[in-house]
TrEMBL record:
The organism's place on the tree of life at top rank: Archaea
Coiled-coil ranges per UniProt: 302-333
SUPFAM superfamilies assigned: alpha/beta-Hydrolases
Name of protein: Xaa-Pro dipeptidyl-peptidase-like domain-containing protein
Organism: Methanosarcina horonobensis HB-1 = JCM 15518
Keyword Nucleus attributed: no
Signal peptide feature range: none
UniProt keyword terms in alphabetical order: Coiled coil
Residue span, Xaa-Pro dipeptidyl-peptidase-like domain: 133-397
One Pfam family from the record: Peptidase_S15
GO MF annotations, alphabetized: carboxylic ester hydrolase activity
Length: 462
């Protein structure tokens, strides 16, 4: 067994559902004692250093086992020594994968990612949400010009997000913070609970808990002498746009809020719209779409009516078991289910459904809170947003702000942009990784101009 033949960097491209391409990079190295070490990076998902626990190579046949994600690659080294042809298996899914030898790690930097040295100061910071017993870690960027500066806190969307809100190789909050800091606004971006340098249990937290973390961030910013405590604002993306109004109602220190694809209608309604629109964009037939919605309605009904988790879980498992019994093998595979891990997949789905976050999100109506927001508001959505559809949500936001007597708000739909505010064709999430743009310059300029105008007015009134 000549292990030197497989030592080095090997890059392959997976063609996955919805036409998305994912680049997998394997790094195989041999220690002086002869042992083999390997890691895997999913470059387009921004995930690096996944341990490859099993590496075997014999007679030109290579096996790489990645237990943590239930994946494995099996392939054969071609005569040229530069190509390994084989298959990637993950759960029950099997896809062709050809690995090619490369000399250096591909540059995963997106076009808009800022390059150091920055024309501003960057500082690693930590502070406490004492009430929740959580330590929060983030990055504060400060302009080089003379302060005190206006400041914003960036609030990420749903799911465990790092301070850059990294998704599919894009780092929207890094791009946004760079843009705003260059324009004279200090920016604080923070790892979610249980992510990166922040402590806490993300899985047991609700949107209201995350609002508490933002309140702790405001207190931290008020303690910084370089910052103007009367010009602290919030920018929330997706669920962050749900959190920002909650914080603005609870704290008199909020000077303004920007809602980027923020919800204006209850979570349950958003989930139905989202499922329908994404399914249609991916070419799913009407019968399947109707069946999926019926299942969602049944499951959400259980969550709303049954507060006892044990009983709710039992009812949800039965609903899912009945649905799976009526699915063909092809339908199961296209829905992401696999026979080998069916119980584990169903259990994970059930746990997510009864989580504190989902129970809150399903029934929370943003309108009553928005009616209480008195500070200036910029609410924007992409025309092609399939996750938080613009028509229904922007109308509801505007209606609530108007009904509450807010005298300074701007509500705008941005042509051609998706949920991440990228210039998109269909708006489907399957496009996100393919698009090189991280945030449309038109969206950045709109946000930057609006903040500059409002913070300048506030400074002039002082």
């Amino acid at each position: 067994m000549d292990l030197e033949e497989i030592e080095g960097l090997w890059l392959g491209i997976l063609q996955v559902q919805g036409g998305m391409e994912l680049r997998l990079l394997f790094n195989v190295s041999i220690s002086p004692d002869g042992s083999v070490n390997a890691t895997m990076d999913s470059l387009d998902q921004g995930v690096k250093g996944i341990p490859v626990e099993a590496v075997t190579y014999k007679d030109g046949n290579l096996h790489l086992g990645v237990k943590s994600i239930r994946g494995a690659f099996d392939g054969t080294l071609k005569e040229d020594g530069k190509t390994i042809e084989g298959e990637w298996k993950q759960s029950e899914l099997t896809l062709p994968l050809v690995l090619s030898r490369i000399n250096e790690t591909p540059d995963t930097r997106k076009e808009q990612d800022p390059v150091k040295p920055y024309p501003y100061d960057e500082e690693e910071v930590t502070y406490e949400n004492e009430e929740a017993g959580v330590k929060l870690a983030g990055t504060l960027t400060l302009p080089h010009s003379e302060g005190p500066f206006p400041a914003v806190i960036l609030i990420s969307g749903s799911g465990q997000q790092n301070r850059d809100e990294e998704i599919l190789g894009h780092r929207p909050f890094l791009v946004l913070s760079d843009y705003l800091t260059r324009r004279g606004t200090a920016v604080l971006r923070v790892d979610d609970r249980g992510v990166g340098g922040s402590t806490g249990n993300f899985s047991q937290a609700t949107t209201e808990d995350f609002a508490g973390d933002v309140l702790a961030g405001i207190e931290y910013l008020k303690s910084r002498e370089e910052l103007d405590p009367t010009r602290i604002g919030l920018i929330g993306h997706s669920e962050g746009g749900l959190i920002a109004p909650i914080v603005a109602v609870q704290s008199h220190d909020i000077a303004f809020i920007v809602m980027m694809a923020g919800p204006g209608i209850p979570g349950e309604e958003i989930l139905y719209l989202q499922s329908d629109l994404i399914s249609r964009a991916e070419g799913v037939d009407n019968e399947t779409i109707s069946r999926n919605e019926a299942l969602m309605r049944s499951m959400y009904s259980v969550i709303k009516k049954e507060q006892n988790n044990t009983i709710a879980e039992e009812k949800l498992r039965k609903l899912l078991a009945d649905e799976l019994a009526n699915m063909s093998e092809e339908e199961k595979q296209s829905s992401g289910y696999s026979e080998a891990d069916l119980d584990a997949q169903v259990n994970a789905q059930v746990q997510a459904l009864v989580s504190p976050w989902m129970r809150f999100f399903l029934t929370y109506d943003p309108s009553p809170t928005l009616m209480q927001v008195k500070c200036p508001v910029l609410a924007i959505n992409g025309e092609k947003d399939l996750q938080v559809p613009p028509d229904e949500n922007l109308q509801a936001i505007e209606k609530a702000l108007k009904a509450g007597g807010n005298s300074d708000y701007t509500v705008k739909e941005l042509p051609g942009l998706n949920h991440l505010f990228q210039t998109a064709e269909t708006g489907s999430p399957s496009e996100y990784a393919k698009i090189n743009e991280t945030i449309s310059p038109s969206a950045l300029e709109l946000i930057g101009n609006w903040i500059s105008e409002h913070t300048a007015d506030m400074e002039n009134k002082q």
